Structures
1.
Amino acid sequence: MTLAAETYDELREIAARYPQARSGLLPMLHLVQSVEGRVTPEGIHACAEVLGLTPAEVSGVATFYTMYKRHPVGTHHVGVCTNTLCAVMGGDEIFACLREKLEVGNDETTADAPGLQSITLEHIECNAACDYAPVVMVNWEFFDNQTPESASQLVDDLREGREVVASRGARITSWREAERVLAGFEDGLVDEGPAAGPASVVGLELARERGWAAPADVHGSADVPEEPSEAVEEADTRRAESETIAEEASDD
Amino acid sequence: MSDVTLKIDGADVTVPEGTLVIRAAEQVGIEIPRFCDHPLLAPVGACRQCLVDIPDAGNGRGFPKPQASCTIPVAEGMVVETQNSTAVKAQHGIMEFLLVNHPLDCPVCDKGGECPLQNQAMSHGQGETRFEGTKRTFPKPINLSPNVLLDRERCIVCQRCTRFAAEIPGDPGIALIQRGAQQQIGIAEDKPFSSYFSGNVIQICPVGALTSDDYRFRARPFDLVSTPSVAEHDACGAAIRIDHRRGKVMRRLAGNDPEVNEEWISDKDRFGFRYAVRDRLTSPMIREDGELRPASWLEAVAVAAAGLAAAGSVGVLPGGRLTLEDAKAYATFARDTLRTPHIDFRSRPLSEEETEFLRSRVAGTSVTYADLDAADHVVLVGLEPEDEAGTLFLRLRKANKAGLRITTLSPYASEGSRKLGAEVVLTAPGAEKDALSQVNGVTDASVILVGERLATSQGAYSAAADLADRTGARLAWVPRRAGDRGAVEAGLLPGEGGLDADGIVRAGLDALLVAGVDPDDTADPDAFLAALDRAGFVVSLEQRVTAVTERADVVLPVATASEKAGTFVTWEGRRRPFEKVFDKPAAYSDAEVLGHITTSLVEPASAASGVETNTASSSAEGDRVGLDTPPPPSLREGAPSLGASGRASSPDDLTRSPSGSGGSTDEGGFHLATWHLMLDNGTLQSGDKALAATARPAFVRIPAALHEQLGDVVTITGDRGSWTLPALPAELAEGTIWVPTNSFGRGVWADLASPGSTVSVEGAK
Amino acid sequence: MTDTLTPVLTANWGDERAWTLPAYAEQGGYDALDVALGMAPEDVQTMVKDSGLRGRGGAGFPTGVKWGFLPPPDPENPKPRYLVVNADESEPGTCKDIPLMMASPHTLVEGVIISSYAIRAERAFIYVRGEVLHVIRRLQAAVREAYAAGHLGTNIHGSGYDLDLVVHAGAGAYICGEETALLDSLEGRRGQPRLRPPFPAVAGLYASPTVINNAESIASVPAIVKNGADWFAGMGTEKSAGVGIFSLSGHVKKPGQYEAPLGITLRKLIELAGGVREGHELKFWTPGGSSTPLFTQEHLDVTLDFEGVQAAGSMLGTRALQIFDDSVCVVRAVLRWTEFYKHESCGKCTPCREGTWWLVQVLERLEKGDGKPEDLDLLLDQCDNILGRSFCALGDGATSPITSSIQYFRDEYLAHLEQGGCPFDPATSTAWAESK
């Protein structure tokens, strides 16, 4: 089965974003996954055709990156961070728990069961959320500060098709829809979720509590001047003010 | 570029600026161990085996850590230590890592005995490993192509093969796949590695990871005898090495000749050698009561001599597989023994215009591969290097990557042209003359390369000559067969009042002497066969059973290239002498056989002794029997120039050429463009199954609009027949379709259409 | 004296809908762009150079100096210039760029525009790791908003300057944080490091002059432009100027992001974070991710600036402070990191590819108690054969946890052999261990 004409059009659209079409290959492979549920030989041929590469060259790229899957991925992809810090903080236990619960090994997908969504379970490397350890990712959305119990509930909800909302992110759609966003096609969910989780602002809140700030409080003013020249003046003024404050502070 | 002096292991070395340390070391005989490094591939620094200590980078400061000498350029005053404790520790460390996952199965490995890993592990390793763990294993082996196999656990992922494929022929059909410790060489799931040059990856693999289906498990390197030779499959003169055991070729490898093929050869040159053992003629034969029967050399030669002597008129068609020595023997034989002017080496469509062109513009000239490197512009006309001249293709591609501009006047924008970075001027067959008059940017530093296909394009050779004369550009003719250029040098063209090959076929001469000619290659195969039937007496000098031997009155077996010494002349005009590989007692070169016939004609009674003598001692001297007769007059004398003699083509000759129009033809048909794919049904490829399996699938190329209309299978009908074939859309000259010459049936000229004619194309019938 | 914590990049993270353009503009967002566009590009470059900003991705190379490596435009052979933002944050322990881009993507976008202007780039790319969906959404939307508001595209703010910016999602490869591997990846290839020279400044993306900077570095630029080079240089230490985000994770009471002047100590940071987990003591920590040699209790007062950390035998790296208390087995931690390097080794060079394969096997048997004391020397020798021999810094990084842990905890390795296994109970180190 070759890909649909619309998919070819979108592949070309991705390639056209770049000065050199080949730069589009990574997002193009994300799109292939969103359409095919994995990187299929047909998808490889389509990318090769659009970019004027050999299928071998595309395969070389597709097999280099861990987000590209050669086997069908479930409705949802659940990644448990088991890099050192998360592992120590309980990631190992969470992964073992989910493995047992879902009866799958690493990078395997649950067997089809009527009325249940399938899940692909994988242990993943550090996902840059160490201050929320242990971390679980669902379709590459953050689920922070997990425990075996919370993770177990999470996969139950996913399997049963109940609404699940990321700790810092949007409500969960599906792995394929997530892959489409990675291909550069927005899904309208950007405004869901908070700006930052609690750990992200722990230092900020402490600073506010204690009245600490950088010498110029660059983000403090609400009435921002429209004209650039005024902005400069305003900045200068604020710097002068903050310098005064700093001097006062150092007097303490 | 200025020179730089540095110190390597205490020795001063002066090399050009920009030289890599590893190359500089070679110049003073210091061997730094290496795997990924290859002088003809871009440096990659992957294997790290060539680490050296550089205590002074030339600025008084050293590198804190060992450096890869394959990627670091020399600097004035640099101090390099390749054997101090730092360097040795680093090299041992890398070697140990390489062997961690290597199976160490040298005793059962084809590479054992000639393996850079094995050798360098001995010279630069510790002898014992500290690794006690589990080795990486893979199911073995996998087919990268029908002919190239990969044993992944032996691979050290140096990337020589993938770099070769991408950089040299431009066929990146193998690639690194996976990552980290699982990284391996691979292909796309459903797409085997396809390259006319795929065998080179086996040869440059520094371990036993890549093997050929052909040679795998067939021999040990130390049991083989190696003889350098020259490839006989095209006019490029690639240096090869023939490895043989007990009279049998086990494999062929690329020789290293920087002036010609560097270190690369085509797969045809490498894997095409079984023709020499299949369907071979084993003894002379003579026709008796309509049937061929084996005969002694004495008898057969006597019959041949008698038959030729009795004939009133004899035509000689020696074909294109000859060495220069054989060609000269034919020239002498025709002129002095048979006293016939009817001789022509060409065994494919030809023209009177070409005859003159070869005499006046090709014989005695020289344009070399190096001249192509130095050129500012190379114009290709009627020539598809990737298919027709593999070595030339690689050299042109390399030159293009270094900046050479290439223009090709071609009926379709082929993959080969794309790989050459060539600007394609779409030119319908027959329209080359006009197209040549419009080529821009040709100067006295340019080179025009014309192919033998121009014989079917009226005025094209002359237009090429005009272009060269007008601009001062140099001109060279690139034929397809190894003996073609030598035949031109030997003067195997019609003499005064002589008939060319087409004329000989038409004329109904009394007798024909035919050597390496496949009738199906000629302009009118049926006419050729009819001429054989019609001739009162036919002598065939052949290697194998062919349509000619089946019709001959006397069949005299001759030696293949590996059974005789000789010289091929490349398209450049370069002499490529080679030695005899196999000393087979009854294998006579064409020249020897002609010598026997001559002897028999001159003194019939003594013929027997002459034959027996040569049979008994087929020495180097014996090989030259045919040359014992006086050499032919100098080529220049024998070949009046076009200008001097003013021999113009007769109107009758011109009718054989197609019209020069690039548009669709009057009848609404299509111009038939054609050339031979490198791997096709050619005689010298028969029997090499793995090679044949790597041939590109043959397709007809038709205009995209037509493809849209007719689909993937079309029926083409010409004046000689009809073919229903798979078709692909392509960018073609207007009103043109392209069909591979010899990939279907008996070939285009026998089954489909006459040269220069038009064909019709319809949906599949 | 500068305050202990100095929120600059993090200052607006708590704001309502901070990721949107209106919210960012309300806090003075894109004012710095006007300031920059009112200056000559060279002057913006000089300003960044004078600020003392050093690369926040780990290497600490002065950002303005890096920009200065671009060859002057060649009228004979005009080549486009590119700015590429390295937002492939994957170094274990590092978690600063991701929250920054999620909370305030416009800070980065504005930084990209100003930096591109400064180096006269006509195209810019944000290469963000693929495994952070919501961050990518926020970046995509921010770029879309910026185009709509005239901050990107042609004739930005009427200045005549044009810039296009593409958000590019990676696909899972730690090595792409290495800048030349990132370029190959951005060109649609396998993310394997390139030979240098040529350096990216001369022949980077598409063989054109290219600057590659870490996301935090580029995000720091608007504040520098707005407040001046002296303002930035006035914070931090003499050679390690300005502020940076310190990411505390692991066994502290309040893990999270702490933005402070460079030169703060871990002692101070742990104090701010409420101390190490109750009833436990600090055992070892990484100053800048797993590729930086481990520190212990004895390094609590090392000043966390480039010079201070280096002098103490490690690297400031990405200020990824992973805190491990005494419940953690160092051998287990090091083995897991080594497995990570093995998994992420790109495979290009022998020592990294084969070395990490082998290291894991030796560490595995040590952890199980199956090893021999000599294995420690074997490990150190393997590391010696990798360090400085591999093609890029990934191989070097792989050796850091091993050599440093053997340096500080040799006895703990030996204890595994003596006891025939790991003396630690992994359950005691989990986040929920205390509450159970």
2.
Amino acid sequence: MNMSWTLVIWLSIGAYAFKMLGFVVVGSRKLPNVLAQCLMLIPAALLGAMVFNGTFTDAQSIAVDERAIGLIVAIIAAWRKLPLIVVVVLAAATTALLRAM
Amino acid sequence: MKFRIEPDVRPVVTSALALSGAVGVFALAFGVLAVGAGASVWQTCALSFFAFTGASQMSAMSIVSTGGTVSAALGSGLLLAARNGVYGLALSPYFGESLGKRLLAAHFVIDETTAMMTAQTNPRLQKIAFWTTAIALFSLWNLGTLIGAVLGGSIDPHTYGLDVGFTAAYITMLVPHLRTSNGRIAAACGATLSVVLAPFLPVGLPILASGLAIFVGVRPQRAKTAA
């Protein structure tokens, strides 16, 4: 687990740079519609990727294990509109329980 | 200066506080998960204070925790941060010309402040909405992170299923993006790419590569007028 300050610092600088880019540099000029539409899809694409990559891969291989059950529990909980913390706890607890068995 | 809150301001302040409270709980989860992913308490808090953009912080942490490189983590974190640039474009006209104020306000341009500000109808309320949300949310986001990070140190991530806790948090963040058909297609393509590419790319890169799914956005949305 090599969490590093390099990551913390560059992510902070980069995140601010993006916020500023639209707000200060581009100002009131308009971005082409198609480009703005694509940029707004970034969260959908990446969050979808992180959910599936995090559940169905183990290093460089495809895997189906306890995490898949945890995912299903999370989806049901989110679909029932339970609060975030409940969704997280239910999914983690299910997985923990299965791992302990 | 009077401290009586005017009637039209009250609902704005109330919803800003409610929203910030919910985000504070989310920050608690982020703190626990980040420390579980191997970050120190200081690193976790620094991210919340300086990067201040939830999904980016989370994705960077989970990529590192699964053995991805720092550059892959940074790449996906920055890609997620890029949408704040688009919010900045949308909010820009609401702010005056003062550069100093713009540079300060820029730090607080995120999903929630954008949503709150654009929901108001007059300039005075827009300003109040932006700044109350910004201040309350920033305070609670950082407080929640600190508490979560301190608590998280005593938890073994694998035993307690924290990796799936991350996944669950992503799902709740993903839900609002599934309202449009483009959002659903982008999510499905991203999900598929991230698993299919896993055997062929180093850890972390499949997530970055799934960003290609955003080109779904070039799909013309004028189908309605054509029909």
